[in-house]
């Protein structure tokens, strides 16, 4: 509980204008993009700099007040739902791109920077920051770091973690540490940088990041291949890789997704096919040309019904934008949309998609599947309605079976969305008791009072997707 | 101390033939490639599988016996010197490439595999494992993983950590955990995979690794640019990157290194120049051609005395082999060779090389410098003699100043060699007390009895490079 004395201290740190404990203000931050999770925070606090973050953290540690760092709340694992109340920490003041260092191919940012703003800034200098979560228009870098966000370019370029050179972190005891630097190589001690990326705010507060940039690819081409057979689409994915071609993007959409997306975006996508691959290659023009030609041949050999290369940049961008809008499009179908990200080795995609469809049939639920086929990172998505308790229960069972299947195929319960509160009950399936114990030991060593985003990653008991009001 | 009862138990696990506690046997493993560090282990043990490793670890944890996992001992940070005695764990039986999965671009290996054997195996399948430490002919993958080894291709391709998808680990309590998998994306909990890579055997024993492969570049070209001015060479490095070209290799050798290497390799390297850049580009032929042409122009614009592209593969391989032999070549000059790897942002290379030369002059010691210019990862190397206590003291002071300078320039005390026993006293300069405390907390959470490679990473007191006999 935040006493009036504690509130006064917080006000003295950040000022009245950066604290909100009104009911309306707290309600706004009582949930994130994840359906079925809601819990009221006690206060919203917006620090202006790292020193203030450190002071806030020290106070919270002393008084055992939970802190939930939050960007734009676009995560899909209830990672920023203030499950145990406490303070939601906003970074609206810490939203600057501090330095673009072209010589060292690095950019230094504060956590509140919007991902797309970063992308646009570095691209204007001919540089490239590849991680591109579908929410990039509104997501913040801080959120991307905490969730280790992926995106459409993961296959060729990797994910957020692969582009973090160094961090400034406020530890739960208030200590401010700096890891890494503008350095291509650094082995001075344990890799705290990558430990913190993807730690979902449970180990400390990231207050600054030095990110790696690469030269902007010279050109890009986008292709759409249509299939009447999902297995053929999956075989195409495997054969492209077997031909030693790594496309920049290799996305899969099934028919239900396609119909929803076309209904939403209205760009003339075909809706009478069973599966679509959206393929992009970037790089030097001659190589892009050559790769796309070979990829088109493979698509034809695997009996694609049609293979079209976007004629203009605008057409290409429309296709990619349509794919990025898949969640928004599917979310229009029913009041509640549950999107998951079970991930399997690339070779198992066909098996996984088949299993998802069988599981959906078994539980009489509708599941549309799209995702990053090149990564094996699929997004089975269920349009449903939380008010229909019977259906929701079947949805829960279906997703539990999907997770189990992913693990059986050598995969994982989450490829890029994180564990948060939502998938915590399933984490043990992937890691075993021993793996969970190892992670809990790390958590306890950093945050003995469990003030940092408590209730995330580690499950208390069993899964629940219930609305909790405090 | 290993009692006779404990010895019997160890024999019952691995068999008589896999234990050696003879004085001669122990002497062999009392040191590694790092000068000035020696300490006798109590026993050498060679387990045959993960289960045996787990049983050994459990026993050692119970009896508080140190365990030092060791590959070929090529590290340069005294990382495998059994500083506090105990058991040296060898992986001579666990040396298999278990699976090459071409569809998922992954290879599963045991820790005892020789790096070059792995490279050759995957290249025969048209695939590429980029990390290439100079010791790769004899180093093991287990050693590379524990040290997060770099190499000549770090600039374009990254280091060992960037190619590890999953691990099997025996924790200090004997638990066997598996992290990651054949997965391009996995955010199920903290990134234990990357935490263990580079942890120098201080957190647990890696018993298996799933490594990421990429398609083999189609072609490669090698160039040598000669300079009478070190600053011009450094400017060339910056301008290549500023031109948005990332070469596969961008190595720097100063004149003293060049003379030593030519004397050793006798391949006709010029020895009358002040600095040499060894530059490689790989990829599609058209791109390699175009990049090398542009790089050659930049070299000429920066007044390189000569720019030669290797005409044949053999010539190119000789050049790279000569660079890889730099340590061996310099080691012939004097009885003791101390090689360091201070690392700075790329833009600071000229400043760093200049500082190294000034510091060498100040302390009247000879320091040759070569290294990965594209990474800012330099290897100032001092041919000296441990028996000359006066000179050794000056060498110590010189290197301490070099580390301080690297940090002042935004760099680190070690880019790819690790901290080990050797650089532990300097780690605080890079991380601060708070950073060290955070890392120590992780260490304590995994290994409360401090049995895993004790005396490494974390300094007890001050620096010492003394021969300790137990």
Automatic annotation (TrEMBL), chains A, B:
Keywords: FAD, Flavoprotein, Oxidoreductase. One of its GO terms (molecular function) is (S)-2-hydroxy-acid oxidase activity. Its cofactor is FAD. InterPro entries: FAD-bd_oxidored_4_C, FAD-bd_PCMH, FAD-bd_PCMH-like_sf, FAD-bd_PCMH_sub2, FAD-linked_Oxase-like_C, FAD-linked_OxidoTrans_Type4, GlcD, Oxid_FAD_bind_N. It comes from the Bacteria. Residues 37-216 form the FAD-binding PCMH-type domain. One of its GO terms (cellular component) is glycolate oxidase complex. SUPFAM superfamilies: FAD-binding/transporter-associated domain-like, FAD-linked oxidases, C-terminal domain. The keyword Flavoprotein applies. Belongs to the FAD-binding oxidoreductase/transferase type 4 family. This is Glycolate oxidase subunit GlcD. It comes from Heyndrickxia shackletonii.
